[in-house]
Amino acid sequence: MSAEDIIEDQFQILQEETAKAMEQVQAYQHKMMTPVWEKRREIVKNIPNFWGQAIRNHPFFAATLSENDAKALDYLTDFHVEYDEANPKRCKVTATFKENDIFKNKTLTKEVIIDPEEGGTVVSKSAIEYHGEKSKKRKADEDDELENYSAIEWFGDDTIEAGILLIDDIFPDAFEYYTGNDQEEEEEEEEEEE
Question: Which domain of life is it from (predicted)?
Fold first, then answer.
């Protein structure tokens, strides 16, 4: 075995140790934040369309919302991510809606395992029961790569990408997205870089 191979093996071991440590940090963070998120959940119940506005204000979803997404977000009353204590990469996402004319479901859920290196795995998902012939109509062109990313359709499909934004970006920083402060900070950072 060459010296280069030995060093490569040592780095591989360090990467595995780092991944395990990061997983433990993530599990601890989720454990500590859960009561905070529960308090927030109670507070935002009194703010009309809090979650719909938070998702709309995310730059990615603002650019890719379908007509049905935009309408459905008006009926979104609760959005919650529940992490598995035994496996911090696994979580259950639940969106609760008022009665609406888009779909029959009151609740949409999706359980996923998110792996930064491999993307992730869908464990379970809701079947979205549309009223009549409702279909997703996007702002983006049909050929556009963004077509597959929908905040609502994500609950019923086999993709992970849109969920990563909902789970890792919007859910923990919901207030910043609701107020639009997150976008302002990004714009200020871009101006400073120029």
Answer: Eukaryota
Looking up tokens 């077509």 gives 147
| pLDDT value of position 116 | 66
- pTM score of the predicted model: 0.80
Q: What six digits make up the tokens of 14? A: 């360090």
Type of residue found at 145: E
Pairing of strands 76-83, 90-97: antiparallel
d(CA 18, CA 15): 5
Residues of the chain with pLDDT under 50: 136-146, 148
d(Cα 145, Cα 147) in Å, to the nearest integer?
5
Q: How far is CA 24 from the centre of its chain?
A: 21
Decide if 104 contacts 119 (C-beta within 8 A). Answer: no
pLDDT of residue 110: 95
Give dist(CA 95, CA 128) in Å, integer.
Answer: 12
Asked if residues 99 and 106 have their Cβ atoms less than 8 Å apart, the reply is yes
Q: Which two tokens stand for residue 91?
A: 């979580």
Residue 91: what residue type? Answer: C
- The token duo for 172 is 């923990």
- Spatial neighbors of 131 by CB under 8 A, at least 6 apart, are 101, 102, 103, 104
